[in-house]
Amino acid sequence: MKSIAIIGGGISGLAVLHYLKQRFGDSADITLFEREALVGGTVRSFKKDSCLFEWGPNGFLDNQPATLQLIKELALTGQLIEANSSSHRRYIQIKEDLHAVPAGPLDLISTPLLPLKDKCSLITGLFKKNISTDLSIYDYVSQRFSSTIAESLIDPFISGVYAGDIKRLHMASAFPKLKRNGFKKNRMLSFKGGMTEIIEALNKRYKKNIQTNTEISSDQIKAGIIIVATPAYAAAKIVESLNPALGRLLDQIPYAPVAVAGLLFKKESFKKMPDGFGYLIPSKANKDVLGVLIESNVYANRASDDHVMMRVMLGGAHHPAIINDNEEQIIAKAIKEIDSVYGLIANPIETFVKQWPKAIPQYEINYPKWRQSVSEECAKTPALYLCANYLDGVSFNDCINNARFLAGIVPLLSA
Fold first, then answer.
1. The predicted structure's pLDDT at residue 92
2. Which helix (H) or strand (E) holds 53?
3. Total domain count for the chain?
4. CATH code assigned at 338
5. Residue 195 shares a structural domain with residue 177
6. How far is CA 102 from CA 111, 113, 177, in A?
7. Cα 135 to Cα 181, 250, 370, distances in angstroms
8. Any bridge partners for residue 383, and if so which?
9. Pairwise CA distance, residues 109 & 123, whole Å
């Protein structure tokens, strides 16, 4: 019987397990090892009374068929919910004031986010050709449009995705779809019970193939194929006995720290009622807070009708010291930020905090060279495979898409 070991029980590892079971069924002995008591990695939802707090991703876009197909295969399609139409309104904060992100040409003309010359550069930049994507995001946007657009419009959205520094992130690596299809408008989806639903479904289906509370290294595994689906810093230690050079490479990729604060308020707690999706903050504001998401505006069932559930993101590449704050300090910073924008009459009635010392891998300028070196080292160890969000995309969709691809190329090796 073929034997395959998967190390890591986040969405990447669980998705690989699903696709391998689809491909091999019971003809292969497949085991997933997870060091924590629960699988799911960063994907987990906490429900308390009427509110739901996501400590990781709160949804995904419907632009990846593999994700939607996986959901169908897990019989979860009926549990899908779409982001409310009112949440399409998104804001950027400039000097404590919120300005709507332009939704069309007319909004662009009137927006105070950009001076007239930069509004013109948005139009002329669309017709510029031969702008290399082998640049930092800042340099690419500055050359195509302007530095003001990079700092005022692009920077806050990069903070929302990568919690990163646009002067260090590599354009083509961070946004590979730009070269293929451009950006298209897509729906944002989640599940009625939160993102944890897909984790629970995978865990239930493959429970006999999953071993939790098991920390293991590659030299402890007797399997024909080893798939490492952990973050890079953990994978570095796991693979070092099989390929020391690969271990050193994996230990090099930087991660941005993020703290997530969940706050539940009564509706009458605000002088100004929070509307829309929420807002992002440009890094030039030099704040610990990256942005504020109004969860109860985005999805149904995140709070009762008389409450507002908010999620505040703090830290990132510009403020790594956030991870040294305790929970009380993080909550205090989150409340102070919300008060500065909406005005608080009363404090939250419920709070949550999740700290991620290494939250999101950073696809920095040297990423293409690093990625090539990783591929070359993996080729030297043919029984070893890597699958995680530091490779070929950080999003929930990317993890599933990459897991599906990997499961399709694993060879039929005997134990």
1. 96
2. strand 51-54
3. 3
4. 3.90.660.20
5. no
6. 7, 9, 22
7. 19, 22, 15
8. none
9. 11
Residue 374 token pair: 């990783």
Q: Is the dihedral of CA 274, 278, 280, 286 positive or negative?
A: positive
Domain annotation covers residue 386: yes
Helices 11-24 and 396-409 pack at an angle, to 10 degrees, of: 30
| Domain's final residue, options 156, 187, 218 | 187
Q: Are 279 and 340 spatial neighbours (Cβ–Cβ below 8 Å)?
A: no
Tokens of 349: 């009635």
CA distance 76 to 68: 9
Phi/psi zone of residue 75: left (φ > 0), alpha (ψ -120 to 50 degrees), beta? left
Kindly state the tokens that stand for 145.
């449009």
| Separation CA 98–CA 341 (nearest Å) | 8
Residue 346 shares a structural domain with residue 367: no
Residues 284 and 315 in one domain: yes
What stretches in the chain show pLDDT beneath 70?
A: 1, 105, 177-185, 412-415
CA distance 333 to 336: 5
Q: What is the pTM of this model?
A: 0.93
Does residue 292 belong to any structural domain of this protein?
yes
Q: Residue 270: inside a domain, yes or no?
A: yes
What lies within 8 Å, CB to CB, of 97 at 6+ separation is none
64-105 confidence digits (pLDDT tens)? 999 999 999 999 999 999 999 888 899 999 988 999 998 776
Helix ranges (DSSP H) in 251-326: 295-298
Both 183 and 217 in a single domain?
no
**Domain span at 403:** 2-43+65-78+190-253+363-409
Domain end point (choices 155, 187, 219): 187
**Distance, CA of 396 to CA of 63 (rounded, Å):** 11
Q: What is the sign of the dihedral through the CA atoms of 327, 284, 177 and 101? A: positive
Count how many residues are written for the chain. Answer: 415
In this structure, the answer to whether residues 90 and 214 fall within a common structural domain is no
Distances (CA, A) of 114 to 139, 176, 192, 277: 18, 27, 38, 21
Q: Confirm whether 141 is domain-assigned.
A: yes
Question: How far apart are the C-alpha atoms of 20 and 415, rounded to whole Å?
Answer: 16
Radius of gyration of the chain, Cα coordinates, nearest whole angstrom: 22
The verdict on 336 and 315 lying in the same domain is: yes
108 plus 194 within the same structural domain: no
What pLDDT does residue 329 have?
98
- Give pLDDT, residue 414: 42
